[in-house]
Amino acid sequence: MKSSGPSRSRVSAVFRYLKGGLIATTLAFAVAAGYLSLLIFQQQKPLSHVSRYDVAWSASQGVNEFIRLYQRITAFQNMRTQERIEDIQLRYEILKGRVNVFESGFFADFTAGESFREDVIVRVAKAVEEMEGLVADLDEPGHASAIMALMAPLEPDLIRLSSEAAYFTSVKISEYEQDLLQVHRTFMATALGFILFGLALAAVLAFQNRTLAKTQSRLTDANKDLKRAATDLAHMARHDLLTGLPNRRLLREFLEDGVIEGDRVAQDTTVMCLDLDDFKHVNDTLGHPVGDALLQEVASRIKKSVDDKGIIARLGGDEFIVVLKDLDVEASSVLAEELIESISWPYMIDGHDVAIGVSVGLAQTKSNEADWDTLLSSADSALYSAKAAGRGSYRFFEPEMDVRLQRKRLLELALRTADYEKDFALHYQPIVNLNSKKITTMEVLLRWPHTPLGNVPPDEFIPLAEQTGVIVSLGAWLLKKACKTASRLPSSVNIAVNVSAVQFQRSDIVDTVTKVLRETGLEPHRLELEVTETLLLEENSDVHRALRKLRALGIRVSLDDFGTGYSSLAYLRKFTFDKIKIDRSFLTDMESNPAHRAIIDAIIGLTDALGVVSVAEGVETWDQLQLVGDSGCDEAQGYLFSKPVPESEMLRLFGNRTWTQRVA
């Protein structure tokens, strides 16, 4: 009995220690469980931010809104409408909101202490602030161009910032993932302990473990998405999104690897600049989706023709670049002809038959003396020469082409910045009735004497004004100026104004004319609008409708340069003109060329049958006047009566009877 006392005492002590140990262990696990629960709770908020791609998402959305605004501005440059202005203003407000996000929250942590990132945010914020006034008055001349000038330098830095944000977020997620793994290990150890000391506690731990596993899975998926987004952004920065071809940046990288040696281009390198002819017409008539699909088809045909002979890139718009090595002039010419033939073959896109042409400019290195920018500029000069030669052709660069291109660029800049009142002048030339011997009409002729290059002839600056779209505002100014002048002429004398096809295509010509007549008070029947066969060539129902509306207002419509077009008689069947002006080319040698005399007789006979006034242009000699008069022509115009004169001399023509004596 005595021996059992100490034994029980030892057992009791052991149980006490075990009990104390169990309690201590249980408390330790309870504290551990509480600590882990607190840790998990504390991790929820940052994890939720990461799951929403906080920094990367903000950056990518900012870049997207920036690019969308830039695209809207570019589209607005091509066609100015109130709807596009409102869309641009909405996009601007969205971008402005994104800039506020850049300056707060997790994004501020991302940019803090990084000079490049802080500089980009400051520059973007400053540009957005400067753009506010420009966007508010977007329809003011030059504002859209000013906005694009502010935005263009920021685009590559914003794309880089977005890529860095994606990487930054990915790193943060990786750090959280490691923290979660450590929490997971601790929790597993706690779970084992609680399994030993209680199934209930083990069940709770298992539940918590499953919760953590799900969170880890979501974070892993989010990390994969961010890495994929970073890869996509890197691809977008180097490729054209529409065609998948390399862009200018990736092209440069390719060239540095295999063509550019230092800052020189390797010998026997050929650069082709390809530009689609009249691509804008496809966009305007069939819509941008068809235009985009056409560009994709063109890119496919270029790749098929070039194959592995060179590198292809799209620089934007309808311009493509092909870089070739080890091709001589003959081989390059063959490839250029093949490209022109292939691209010009008709397309079937969304049920539309689409025909497009292409012009090609080529530049070759004869040695390794040329740098890449010079070579590309030379190819661009050759392209301009090819287009000037009639399109659908190719030209190799020649040094004198640079002079023509520089002149064109100077004139284009001067056109865009011209003060119409100060830089342009209007001259007037009379049209004389051969029966009454009186002036019936004064034709307005535009002159551009004040340019950095001196006096520029109309046949040079008017096509350029049409190409750039400046003709719309310039033509409206000319029309108003001419109508004001007409109000000072005798009421029996009309004013004739030439109207470009571009004015019909890019503006509401009926509204423009109606507004000018209302503001100037000129009677509609005293205004004559002269159009050429080019306007009617496209069979555009909107153009025909506009012409009919103008005639319904009482405005006279004349067909200028008749006989030089593609199917002149067809136009007379589809539309009724008030006057037909016989092209001056038929008068130049009509005294010695019976064929020209016969054509003039036929045209005058046709106008008589139709009840339309006939006008002979370019009458310079007595013999020409006698011949057109004998043919029955109604009116005549030319240097025999008067050269085009400024307004200050125009009124003298009505008091000067010299020309009247000539007609008599």
TrEMBL record:
Residues 408-658 form the EAL domain. The keyword Transmembrane applies. Coiled coil: none annotated. Keywords: Membrane, Transmembrane, Transmembrane helix. GO terms for molecular function: catalytic activity. Residues 267-399 form the GGDEF domain. The chain crosses the membrane at residues 20-41, 187-207. It comes from the Bacteria. SMART domains: EAL, GGDEF. InterPro entries: Biofilm_reg_signaling, EAL_dom, EAL_sf, GGDEF_dom, Nucleotide_cyclase, Rev_trsase/Diguanyl_cyclase. The keyword Membrane applies. This is Putative diguanylate cyclase. The lineage of its organism: Bacteria, Pseudomonadati, Pseudomonadota, Alphaproteobacteria, Hyphomicrobiales.
